[in-house]
């Protein structure tokens, strides 16, 4: 049934796509860049970050802000930080200087409609592997700001511009929403990083918001009853005061029930293990339970969780340096759950292709700042689609009022969107932006569902 609905959406999209392309002013449009201005602004953790304004020759503007991760993949684009004593070494003056002295001169006069050309020009300035010369924070803000300016110059919403330029079929994504934070986002109070829900049984984005709100507050009530309410973690999920990682899962299941839902029917659980944060070279250590395990034991434990806790998606189940274990996990559970590569793939098309060849994942987490430019991130997304994978456009734990990723997820038709929890405006701005997109006259369809083969969820219906 779910598969059929998906096929139907794809078919409708296929028919509509030529129409949407006609709506753009297309390649004939020239929107020359007149200037770029970088500025230091502050993210949701109170850390400095980079904002870029792009101005076109006709006065049209675009703006974007770089987010920042805390549990970063070793191979992702580096944020350029000044180091030293002030602002805990996190100031971004060097990155801003690079925008003014290198990126701006290289982009002035280029057509903002040619996103790939813009990104190639940025890349040509920094031949280092991880963009450590310009900084991924500078390149991502510049690249995204140009995308905004081009959309504004076309007089169309950003999601529509993305769909037109990258020739994709837009859709409103299915959210993945954190209820408990953990790992690096909660002082490692528990080892697992994200305890999330998805509502693949919802019929609209609105309904997902409603159900999520009920589950979120039910979880808060449960914590309060146990005397364990202790505020929220970095992404707005409840602070995880638990004696074991399993207790967090049990509480999440209980919260879903308390919200009046039957786990596994409309609502399922999704985890980001972020295993690189507690393991290296195939050896892992769950600090909360003082338990050491090897890759095989970690995989066995996650397998038991899949059976016991209505889990439909698992991100980074093992370390980014443990490819054999990723393959083993995908081999054993890839038919039951979405196996998502985040730190493992760092939004890199080549790593996606390798992982697809090795059958190490079946889904990609897309973080534009891991890649460093819009084009590179979309290339990774395309590589994932070609492999027949799902994709989830994702925020970082350090975020701002920038809602570009809601448009990126919708415009590309990525299918899923992960932005953290259900409180805090740097998160809610992304969910609310999807609601606004949904209200537009020619809004795309809500994608719903979770198109997995042989999932327990699929079996039950
Ligand atoms: P980060 O983590 O933004 O702190 O790197 C988010 C994630 O792992 O998905
Ligand atoms: Zn992750």
Describe the protein:
The structure is a single chain. With 461 residues, the chain is of the alpha/beta class. 41% of the residues lie in helices and 16% in strands. The protein has helices at residues 2-23, 93-107, 115-123, 136-154, 158-165, 205-225, 245-258, 295-308, 323-333, 349-358, 368-371, 374-386, 404-412, 425-438, 456-460; strands spanning 33-42, 48-56, 61-65, 174-181, 194-198, 268-272, 279-280, 283-286, 291-294, 311-315, 338-341, 363-366, 390-394, 415-420. The strands form three sheets. Strands 4-5-6-10-11-12-13-14 form an eight-stranded mixed beta barrel, surrounded by seven helices. Strands 1-2-3 form a three-stranded antiparallel β-sheet. The chain has a three-stranded antiparallel β-sheet with strand order 7-8-9. Helix 8 (295-308) runs parallel beside helix 9. It is globular. The termini are close together. The model is unreliable at 1-26 (pLDDT under 50). Zinc ion binds at residues 272, 274, 315-316, 342.
Instruction: Enumerate the distinct ligands.
Output: 2-phosphoglycolic acid, zinc ion
According to DSSP, the number of beta strands is: 14
* Helix-strand string: HEEEHHHHEEHHEEEEHEHEHEHHEHEHH
Contiguous helical run count: 15
The CA-CA distance between the termini, in Å, is: 9 Å
The protein's oligomeric status is single chain
Q: Determine the mean pLDDT.
A: 93
Q: State the major sheet.
A: 8 strands, mixed, barrel
Q: Over all CA atoms, what is the radius of gyration?
A: 21 Å
Percent helix = 40-55%
